[in-house]
Amino acid sequence: MNPWILAIRPRTLPAAIGPLLVGNILALELEQFSILIACTSMLCAILLQIAVNLANDYFDFKSGIDTDERLGPVRVSQSGLLAPEKVRNAMIMCLVLALIVGSYLIYHGGWPIAFLALAAILGALGYSGGPYPLASHGLGEVAAFIFFGLVAVVGSYFLQAGETSIAAWILGSAIGFLNAAIMLVNNTRDIDTDVKAGKQTLAVRIGLGQARVLYQTLVFLPFALIIGGFFLGFLPGLPVLLAGLSLVLARKLNSDFSITTGEALNPLLGRTAKLTMLFSGLFSVGLIFV
């Protein structure tokens, strides 16, 4: 496989695509809805996700976290497939492109979007790098919830509507929990190697048993949120019903996660990302037909 494909990690992209899809489709019925804004925000999110992946590859290699004992998918810097400097430069290029693309969104959305753009860029760099890497201090799942949940859904809706809504906050929280679950799978797989490297992820801090309990919470809570949103009158029934179909996958994932450790968790990483995309896609389809 092309090393740049490995570096980009296409399996993680649903974490960026899903919330932007929901946020924009939620605003589809608005008179001022703009397909250009929708496409631009989606492209910006994808570029930021790729930048995060490249930063993680580069900084984890430079800090010595990625070693020959690594259990996860191939890291191009650690394996020597790409020079670390090339990965770093590609990361910078993606951030610059995201800023160029996002400048239109900032022009359209004003200072709130400018603030979110700055936070997103700092988050991309600070996830694995900087003086206080979020991933090494148990904050990776929190960052995923905030940036690939609340910021992505509420921010994309705000760009279209010029305001937020309770529905957007509910959906941002739901998808944020699913994306946090992706991060938790990754960190649970790497518990043993992260302990050796001194990386204090949330999974390292709470241990395997509690990580399994947390995963169960993260994959089931989104369904409780949208059902609650329906009964409170904030979400329409059809999207909730369709998204509820993905509960079948959530139950299977939880069952598998509860008995799986180490390298065998790699397939669950991609399947958890698929859950995010399935949940988001089904809810979006339901919104279109409401």
Automatic annotation (TrEMBL):
Q: Can you state which reaction this protein catalyses?
A: an all-trans-polyprenyl diphosphate + 1,4-dihydroxy-2-naphthoate + H(+) = a 2-demethylmenaquinol + CO2 + diphosphate
User: Which top class of enzyme applies to this chain?
Assistant: transferase
Where does it live in the cell?
Cell membrane; Membrane
- Transmembrane stretches in the record are 34-55, 90-107, 142-160, 166-186, 218-248
Q: Which keywords does UniProt give here?
A: Cell membrane, Membrane, Menaquinone biosynthesis, Transferase, Transmembrane, Transmembrane helix
Task: State the superkingdom.
Answer: Bacteria
Where would one find coiled-coil regions in this protein? none
> What membrane topology does the UniProt entry give?
Multi-pass membrane protein
EC number(s) per UniProt?
2.5.1.74
Which pathway, per its entry? Quinol/quinone metabolism; menaquinone biosynthesis; menaquinol from 1,4-dihydroxy-2-naphthoate: step 1/2
From the UniProt record, which GO molecular function terms apply?
A: 1,4-dihydroxy-2-naphthoate polyprenyltransferase activity
Q: Sorted alphabetically, which Pfam families does this protein's record hold?
A: UbiA
User: Which family, according to UniProt?
Assistant: Belongs to the MenA family. Type 1 subfamily.
Instruction: Report the protein's function.
Output: Conversion of 1,4-dihydroxy-2-naphthoate (DHNA) to demethylmenaquinone (DMK).
What this protein is called in its record is 1,4-dihydroxy-2-naphthoate octaprenyltransferase
Provenance organism = Shewanella eurypsychrophilus
Quote the gene name from the UniProt entry.
Answer: menA
